[in-house]
From TrEMBL:
EC annotation from Swiss-Prot or TrEMBL: 3.1.3.48
Protein's UniProt name: protein-tyrosine-phosphatase
Family recorded in the similarity comment: Belongs to the low molecular weight phosphotyrosine protein phosphatase family.
Lineage: Bacteria, Bacillati, Bacillota, Clostridia, Lachnospirales
Organism: Catonella massiliensis
Keywords: Hydrolase, Protein phosphatase
UniProt domain Phosphotyrosine protein phosphatase I: residue ranges: 2-147
Catalytic reactions on record: O-phospho-L-tyrosyl-[protein] + H2O = L-tyrosyl-[protein] + phosphate
Highest taxon in the source lineage: Bacteria
InterPro entries with a match to the protein in the record: LMW_PTPase, Ptyr_pPase, Ptyr_pPase_sf, Tyr_phospatase_low_mol_wt
């Protein structure tokens, strides 16, 4: 089983969006038994909160099921347990490096790297643009699914 952990700052907007979008993709592809998907935060600011209403609204709009969720922070144990740790932006990468004390197994990448891009996924908490965030998340998740299904 391949274990994937999506990461953003608070684990209420972008990482949950990626988590639910990717879960929906693998469910529709009949691959749910081959993957474990989760999401977490690098910060402690939103711990215990559920998915942001803007993310919920956007996912319902596009027909992606919204799963039960409570924000939690990544730990060193998560680094051991997950095969892929996928960050939404460069700040997440810096925070992951600090929290995890590096990435010796090269498990950490930005989501848009799976779409062949070096960019960051903008945080809709600040931009208010959940449509743009969804487009980038979808593109990254499609690239991730393609890479993973090609490897398997």
């Amino acid at each position: 089983m391949t274990k994937i952990l999506f990461i953003c700052h608070g684990n209420i907007c972008r990482s949950t969006m990626a988590h639910f979008v990717f879960q929906d993709m693998i469910n529709k592809a009949g691959l749910a038994d081959e993957f474990l998907i989760d999401s977490k935060a690098t910060s402690t600011e939103a711990l215990g909160e559920s998915t942001h209403y803007g993310t919920v609204k956007k996912l319902r709009e596009v027909g992606v099921p919204v799963l039960p969720h409570t924000s939690t922070q990544i730990t060193k144990k998560d680094y051991r347990d997950f095969d892929y740790i996928i960050a939404m932006d460069t700040n997440n990468l810096r925070n992951l490096d600090r929290i995890l004390s590096g990435d010796p197994k090269k498990k950490i990448r930005k989501l848009l790297s799976f779409a062949g891009k070096d960019g960051d996924i903008a945080d809709p908490w600040y931009t208010g643009d959940f449509d743009a965030t969804y487009r980038d998340v979808l593109e990254g998740c499609e690239g991730l699914l393609k890479e993973l299904t090609t490897k398997h």
